[in-house]
What does this fold into?
Amino acid sequence: MNLPAAREIYQKIAANISHVMHGQSAATRKLLAALASGGHVLLEDFPGTGKTTLAKVLARSIDARFKRVQFTPDLLPSDILGVSIFNQREQEFQFHEGPVFTNILLADEINRASPRTQSALLEAMGEAQVSVDGERRNLAELFFVVATQNPVEFRGTYPLPEAQMDRFAMQFTLGYVQPAEEMAVLTAQADHHPLDELKPCVTLAEVMALKHAAQTIRINEELKRYIVELTGATRTTTGVQLGASPRASLALMKAAQALALFDGLEFVTPEQIQELAVPVIAHRLVMEAQARFSGLTARGVVESVVKKIKVPA
Amino acid sequence: MKPPPLLLGATLLFWGWQSGFLLVGAVLGAVLESARVFRARWEFSDEDFGRVWTFCALLLLASALYAFTANEGPSSFSNFFSDANPRTTTQASSATARTAGSIMRWLPMIFFPFLAAQTFSTREAIPLTIISMIARRRWRRATPAERAAPQAQRNFHIGYPYFAGTLFASSFHPAENTSFFWGLAGLLTWMLWAHRTRRVALGFWVGLVALVLGLGFAGQRGIARLAGYVQEQSPRWLDSFLRRNVDPSHSKTAIGQLGDLKLSGQIVIRLHPKPGSPPPAYLREASYRQFKSPVWFAGNSKDDFETVAEDPPNSGSWSLLPGTSNTTGVTIACYLDGFSTNGSPQGMLPLPTGSGRLENLPAYVLRKSGAGTVVAEGPGLVVFDAFFGPGRTLDSPPATNAATSEDLIVPDSDKAALEGVIAELQISGKPPAEILPAVAGFFASKFTYGTWQRRGRGAGTGSSAITRFLLETRKGHCEYFATATVLLLRQLKIPARYAVGYSVHEPSGDGYVVRLSDAHAWCLVWSEAQQTWIDFDTTPASWVAEEAKNRSPWRWLSDAWSRLTFEFSKFKWGQSKLRQYLLWIMVPGLALLLYQILFRRGRRRQAGKKAEAAIIVHWPGMDSEFYQLEMQLAGHGVPRRPSEPWNEWLERVAEIPALAGLQDPLRALLRLHYRYRFDPPGLSDADRERLKHETQVCLESLNRAKP
It folds into this structure.
């Protein structure tokens, strides 16, 4: 598939989402960049900002399977992965697939589940396969997880371990929209939810084509070096206990490729890298307690690193 | 860790109060604490902090230089180097001491810029590598893996080190009251309060702090008071009583006191005989003439002090008995533990009998009296050479008129007892040559040495202590023996004086040490034949052994401590070579610091240039003409920040009305430029030409747009 056609797919999905999500074009762009680069997304925001809706809208826009799991403390790994049940009639165990066997999975409030359940999902995210009863089962070719978590609640939550935060290609927030856009949301939902009449605009095959097209976007050595400099700088910054991993560099490069595709370019430019630096790198940093209390945030660290390092031009 | 709010401001104010820079302290404190009102903060990089640190170091150097010149350092040192004698040595060392004192007091001012930089910066902590050469070297040697470790680079906040330094600076020239102690206690409590653990109850914490402060106060004041109280309460504990009661005008003896006398084993004098010279048996400090029990008074020799001239001036050589040429010499180190009216240390020098000349004595003023007393005013510790020999002494000869001679006065209360002894010995009217052995034999055979005085039968009957000693107890310490002997000889019309000083008998290394417990009293007898005063000691020789019995098993410890304080005093009072070379020790350190400042930065800059050059050569498309446009537009007031990508910059360019029309051609050019720079295949020849050409067009229209 040629690049303009791929870009058209992106534009179709983005337009479809914007019917429901008002004023979230930047978030949509990032979400689709993650989708096209094969990464998973963690949405962290306050309740009611549209995290779940965004995931649902994306799922509706693509003619693909969509499952949603509401994470609770008593959720078990088998509730996600599936379970083998003994069939009396057939005298054998039959595997009942869990919600993870889908194309788009919405893991709502992922930090409310126990670490055991979280890691079951994260293995699936990392390896694109699950092991149940010693048997390996591959997941669908397109497997995209959108997890949400709520930053205000702490009681009864299990914060994701640093290693698992690293599995998410991006973490970003939606934030409150402008008053005018919020009014548009009210108007749109006055009699019915626009989500109900949303129709899929692209097929699964088209999304796969978009993914492949993103991989063909070129990136030169200088920009690779710039990416490595950005992630490397976070490792030596004061107040950061654990810097970004090479996995972060990889995710940043892939997402930048997707973004370049969306921008109609055949190659990556520094703009895409800078745009994605915060959502790709920030959530992977572990800050020192002292720095955290003094108001230094991971986001601030990445922003200052971007400001400090000379951009290739 | 960061100090709690207002603590540093209060500490600066306290420092200002204590060191006499109240206004400066108040201003610095106000500037520092204004950070709580002003929310503006600067973004300082590590490099900036390095620069501020260098500035502070330079300020320290400059202050050191200023303090040195302001305290007459250069002149005193040039004098010292051109003519090293005790006086210039002392001047040079006191200039050094004053310089050091000034710098210490200025420390809070000198390092204030660094503290202010950190307070007003956005940074919470700065890497240790900025100020520590060791940390810097370790960092430079670290492998990339080590550097990536979370704790590889240690960070610090200057707050507490500055707090400690300011308190230290406040301790110089403290007020003569307890304000420093309580101020220090208050500030430290404040600091501890801010960091106290919440695990313990508040009451317990307060109690604990109060206890520690109480102990600290006791350590400072209470112990001294307790010692005074104990001494007042019990005469038996009269530690070092002799030192307190000897001066050129009188010597209060312990005669008549009851109970045990103990002298401390503290080392007060060290002496080294010159090669081939025997050590002196006695070191005399003074002699006395009138006895009014229990005090010996100097009588009219109290006022006959005359100043000894230093000959030649500033040579450290003082001639006590002009005309003598003694070759027996000894090096004496002793403390001057009193103070003259102008505040400089002053004391009596313990000298061997017949000392004629003193060499290398760094005294400011030296005076001698007819009682054989030599009073020196100088540094607190003096080390000098005394040359002595038999024959003449400093003492004035006895008055020729026997009726008025002070050297023949006997208290009426003791005359009866003395006559009794004379009758017992049957020595009345015999020549001195026979009397002296008889008296010595009398005391040696019939008396015993003891520091313990019990209440005898005669006590309370009104008879004097000497009478009781002679007739009844026949036991006592050296002061009894010396006093009784003097009075006995005077009763026999032989002029005699009471001498105090030290007995030298304890070898240590290749010299001798003299302890406070070696303090001794003996008798000076006038020899008509030799026309001189001779030492006459009737105290039984067993006294040394008796005193040794009192030795504490822990004396080695106090001796070691004494050695340490002696060496320190030598350094403090400029009596050791170390002090003289202090400047030379400092010079390499200062040179190293200067080298660091001058060349370290330069080297780094060069290294940076090389790395940059490598990058420039490596990347493709760096010859793009688009950069000319950038330079041109920077001239229009829109320079591009190093971290700003082109698109963002172009948006800023478009905001300038005069350049708004250029936006579309610029965007098209930027696409070409980006392809040239970042697309691995690069541009085709035609596109490369297009980039060149369109940039030229753009540049021209820019030039036209220029007013």
